[in-house]
Amino acid sequence: MTTTALHTIRSCIDRSLEDEPQSVIKVDELRTLRTDLAQYVLTDQLAREYARVFERVIEAARPAGNRVTDVGIWLSGFFGSGKSLFAKLAGHVLADTQLGTDTARSLFQQHLRRGRPGDDRLAELFQEATTYRLRAALVAFGNYSVG
Counting beta carbons within 10 angstroms of the beta carbon of residue 85, is it exposed (0 to 12), middle (13 to 18) or buried (19 or more)? Predict the structure, then answer.
């Protein structure tokens, strides 16, 4: 690839291309969380999927809810489909993990674009999480097989 082609690609992407992509995502790792959140590309489809997960968890925090106190989330999919990164971000956003003066939720909210249905729903859910003082904890475990 020529230097001109690289320059053209770099000018189209609003992030550093110097960072090596992670081959393994560790859901409970905080060292890369800020970068993961900053570089995440939130599509409308992904926003709708996050909303589906967050709705179930936030429902348990509502005062008029069904008094469910423990909610678990199971993700399944093909190798390389993004399950681990989805789980990492969802867990830290729900737990509102503190990252210096920011939180995972506030950093994730920077990706929301008004007018996209999934994003608008996430904004509503984040407001509910704050109103209902959602308390969540990230508990990671996995089912790994070596073949």
Answer: middle
3-11, Cβ contacts within 8 angstroms, sequence gap of 24 or more: none
Give 6-45 pLDDT, tens digit per residue.
556 566 666 565 665 566 677 777 889 999 999 999 999 9
First-to-last C-alpha distance (Å) of the chain: 36
Tokens found for residue 46: 């992904």
> How far apart are the C-alpha atoms of 142 and 134, rounded to whole Å?
25
Percent of the chain whose predicted confidence (pLDDT) is above 90: 45
Q: How far apart are CA 19 and CA 41, in angstroms?
A: 16
Cβ burial, residue 32 (10 Å; 0-12/13-18/19+): middle
- Sign of the torsion angle spanned by Cα atoms 124, 127, 133, 134: positive
Distance, in Å, from the CA atom of 136 to the CA atom of 117, rounded to the nearest integer, reads 25
